[in-house]
Amino acid sequence: MTIPLAVPDAGVGHDPWWVILIKVLFIFVFLVVLTLFNIWWERRVVARMQHRIGPNVHGPFGLLQSLADGVKLMLKEDLMPKGVDRLVFVLAPAIVAVPAFLTFAVIPFGPTVRIPWTDTYTRLQLTDLPVSVLYVMAVASIGIYGIVLGGWSSNSTYSLLGGLRSSAQMISYEVGMGLALVTVFLFAGSMSTSEIVAAQSHQTVHWFGAAIPLPGWYAFLLFPSFVIYVISMVGETNRAPFDLPEAEGELVAGFLTEYSSIKYAMFFLAEYINMATVSALATTLFLGGWRAPWPISLWDGANSGYWPVLWFMGKLMGFIFFYIWLRGTLPRLRYDQFMKLGWKILIPISLAWILLVATVRAVGRETNFSRTTLLVAAAVVLVIAVVSMFVPQKPKDEDKPEVADGKEFDAFAGGFPVPPPLAGTAGRSETDIRSKEGSRG
């Protein structure tokens, strides 16, 4: 249904109380149902990738399997190990779950619509803020406290290590995620989610005197930022291949080791809601939000009425499928590789890209060059710099281990791996080496 032009835009914050209540209930029910569906969908997709059947017993196509698992967890015995901090142990799951629901308050699902059977118009968004994106990142960061406190209060070494890993992981990839969004703020001129969606409505590129219409999505215009955000959002949500806080091969189940019953379920509920949150934020900031993709956007009514909700959900589920595809495809990274990716690759690239984008905008205002042309040139420079980081370098001669008696050092000669001898110690006994090191001390 197309809204008449005479009807003004119903801005957020001016809705009647009953409309606000409907929106709050809708977001809560939507996130719970979406979580149940995503669990089922993940099990079905991974089963398909591994040539298995997956859930197919409870309900049509096994759709009620997630609901059955939730009921089972609620009815299971709630165990509490000895020596735990009872108050913190009980509050930790709630600290994780509650912020997960709050983040969707500023996500726009669609434009202004008329509520059926009434004459009331409202925007399909609970509320909006001048700093909506910062609100999402701040509230989402609160959930990490629940994971850290849950691991600390469990009185278990595995749980504590999982909580510490999670805190380090959040710090590392929250920085990369925030830097990836700076360029979006520079181009949109706002941190409001609704204004960022409006800024991506269209984009015309002037290339050698010809006007070329392109989708206004920042995923194309700011492609490096989009890639960095996608990698960071997977690390932020502790999902494979970055699920180091609950690595079952190393830490049993990480911070979840001592939890059971409904507390265990709340941690998983928060994880899947956070997946939907960062996916919705990526849709809003980089894929035009609720606006229809091309060529559907050629239809006049594509971006009016309730149709935009369908486009928004399609983009959101595309990111959820990306999550599932990663889990069924890639192995888990080592922790040192994971930290190196965040601190030595993503963050430096983000800083360099921000500098290039800011320079392009400044040069574009002062000269007659097209900002899009300059931006493409900046992206090419960035790609060349990134590729040069991965070019293997020839090791220097002094980096090679010293050889004794003209024979090359073999680390496995005695059956066990040993480090190479220190420089200048080849052919000397271990007693002589230790005595000389002790004299230096």
From TrEMBL:
Protein name as it appears in the record: NADH-quinone oxidoreductase subunit H
Keywords: Cell membrane, Membrane, NAD, Quinone, Translocase, Transmembrane, Transmembrane helix, Ubiquinone
Entry membrane topology: Multi-pass membrane protein
Transmembrane segments: 17-41, 87-109, 129-149, 170-188, 208-231, 264-286, 306-325, 345-363, 369-391
HAMAP family recorded: NDH1_NuoH
Subcellular localization, as worded in the UniProt entry: Cell membrane; Membrane
Similarity comment: family membership: Belongs to the complex I subunit 1 family.
GO molecular function terms listed in the Swiss-Prot or TrEMBL record: NADH dehydrogenase activity; oxidoreductase activity, acting on NAD(P)H, quinone or similar compound as acceptor; quinone binding
GO cellular component, one term: plasma membrane
Pfam families xref list: NADHdh
The encoding gene: nuoH
Top-level division of the source organism's lineage: Bacteria
GO annotation, biological process: aerobic respiration
EC number: 7.1.1.-
Residue ranges, annotated region (Disordered): 410-441
Reactions the enzyme catalyzes: a quinone + NADH + 5 H(+)(in) = a quinol + NAD(+) + 4 H(+)(out)
Comp. bias intervals (Basic and acidic residues): 429-441
